[in-house]
Amino acid sequence: MLLFSVLAAAIAPGIALLAYFYWKDRYDAEPLPIVIKLFLTGALTVLPVMIVQRALTLWLGESPFAFSFLISAGIEEFIKWFVLFHIIYNHTEFDEPYDGIVYATAVSLGFATLENVLYAFTETVTFGMLLARALLPVSGHALFGVFMGYSMGRAKFSSGRRSKLHLALALALPIGAHGLYDFLMQTVPSRWLWIMVPFMFLLWLRGIRSVNRANAISPFRLLKREEEVKP
User: Fold this and answer.
1) 121-131: per-residue pLDDT in tens?
2) CA max distance for the chain
3) How far is residue 152's CA from residue 130's CA, in Å, rounded to a whole number?
4) Is 22 within 8 Å of 39 (Cβ atoms)?
5) Counting Cβ atoms within 10 Å, is residue 115 exposed (0-12), middle (13-18) or buried (19+)?
């Protein structure tokens, strides 16, 4: 019973956050089988990412900056970006900017959920610690996915240099946010870790703003309006 409770506590935050961003798609919900596939794909990337990160740690050392921006954020966000670009970017179901957010958060939360499960069963944890992880790293991964998906959605429906710029931002923005998160967690003294509360609040503000902007430029928004005004 305890095993099941710990497993549920480790998995629930990722599922809840994915459901939240999935339901924020106002105009054309994505097929659940594709979303689930990307969630599971994100989970499958955990092991290879851990192997690469271990190798880079042995090579680059464990300085806070190198670990935060290169070993942790750099590798994790690049793998997520690579998966999205090669699996879903050119898919026919990716037909509005908000789809990028749905698919990117699916990959990110698949990764975060398995990472959370591994943490729960390899460390001595309490439910309070799992709650803290739900509020910090798991929701952090969701928001990094929002930043990636928003820019990837803009890239998909742009052309030329603007498309390339947004594709670059789809990688650079989550690496920057993720790296800063990890850097603060490593360098700020424990008695000052309350600073993560306003930091996460700012991330959420930016994330919700991206969600609203992506919905606002959906081509299905105009179609829905036209249907509503038809007699």
Assistant:
1) 776 666 666 66
2) 68
3) 31
4) no
5) buried
pLDDT digits (tens, 9 = 90+) for 161-209: 999 999 999 999 999 999 999 999 989 887 777 888 899 999 999 999 9
Asked if residues 75 and 49 have their Cβ atoms less than 8 Å apart, the reply is: yes
Q: What percent of the chain has pLDDT over 70?
A: 88
The one-letter amino acid at 152: M
User: Three-state SS across 6-35?
Assistant: HHHHHHHHHHHHHHHHHHCCCCCCCCHHHH
Question: pLDDT tens digits for 43-100?
Answer: 999 999 999 999 999 988 879 999 999 999 999 999 999 999 999 999 999 989 999 9
Task: Give the Å distances, CA to CA, from 180 to 131, 132, 148, 151.
Answer: 21, 18, 16, 19
The pTM of this model reads 0.90
Q: Cα(24)–Cα(150) distance, rounded to whole angstroms?
A: 13
Q: How far apart are the first and last CA of the chain?
A: 58
